[in-house]
Structures are given as structure tokens and as C-alpha cells.
Amino acid sequence: MQVTINISLKEGVLDPEGRAVETSLQSLGFHEARDVRIGKQITLSIEAEDAARAQQRAARMCESLLTNTVIEDYIIEVVEDE
Amino acid sequence: MQVTINISLKEGVLDPEGRAVETSLQSLGFHEARDVRIGKQITLSIEAEDAARAQQRAARMCESLLTNTVIEDYIIEVVEDE
Lengths: 82, 82
Hints:
Two copies of one chain form a homodimer. With 82 residues, chain A is α+β, with helices and mostly antiparallel strands. Chain A has a single domain, classed as 2-Layer Sandwich (Mth169, Chain: A). Chain A has two helices and three strands; from the N terminus they run βαβαβ. Chain A has helices at 16-27, 51-66, and strands spanning 2-9, 33-46, 72-79. A three-stranded antiparallel beta sheet of chain A has the order 2-1-3. The first copy, chain A, is elongated, with a radius of gyration of 16 Å. The interface between A and B is medium-sized, with 33 and 33 residues.
């Protein structure tokens, strides 16, 4: 199964990288850009019998390695192979 | 408008960070994980009259600052405010 994991900083957690990008965008003339936040998108394939199992394993991976659950949220999307 | 930009390495471009994560997952017992690729997800709000204009401005931002178009692809999603 193809799995996509979107990892973002929790609301309220400062995002200095996002702030730096926002400042750069402004100075390039993109004054309409606001609230820039930068997260990660991890894609991987997981061998599993069904989507529920892949989802469960991906959550385990997030909890044990991929995310820092103190400051980050994650969303898992599973696409079943044809 | 709320805009999400997903940036990923082009196919064929080596992803050492993804490789490192894959090795770590394997050594933690996640032997079903394969083809780990790590990209960025940028969220921002763009003031614009309509979604088409927000999309166009976001593409400009990608081309001039946010992505390295030699090695990266990007996908822009615009969500219209209610």
C-alpha cells in the first residue's frame, strides 16, 4: 500500500523556518503571503493485508520514530494498490 | 485562501534522508516499510480574489523561492475560504 504521512507542527508551536520563508516571500514582493508553516510529507510503501493494517503500522512508525508527538501532529493517508 | 504546497524530490533523484529513515525503520522492526521518500509540505494563506489567482501566485512563489525545480516537483492545492 502507498502511504502518505503529513507531519505538521502543532498550533501554537513556533515555526522559525516558516517565519523565515514568510519574510523572504515578503521581500520578494509576495505581500499576500501570510501564516507560512513548514511541515514534512513522508511517502512510503507498506506491505500489509489491508488498508486498516497499513494505517495501524504507519501510526506505530510515527509514534516510535517519524514524529515528535510533543510538538507535531500527523495525518496518515493510505492508498490501496490496484 | 488556504494553500497547501507539497514538494517532493523528482523520481530518480537520490533521497539520502529517506534512505536513512528507511534503515532506521527496518532496524526498529518495521520490515514492511519500503521506498521511503521525504518531502516538504508548506501551508500558507494567500490573499487573492479567487482560487485561480491564488494558485498562480503560489506557483510563482514555488518557482522563485520555495522549490528547486531542477530536482523537485510541487503540487499546489487551494482551499477557498467560506
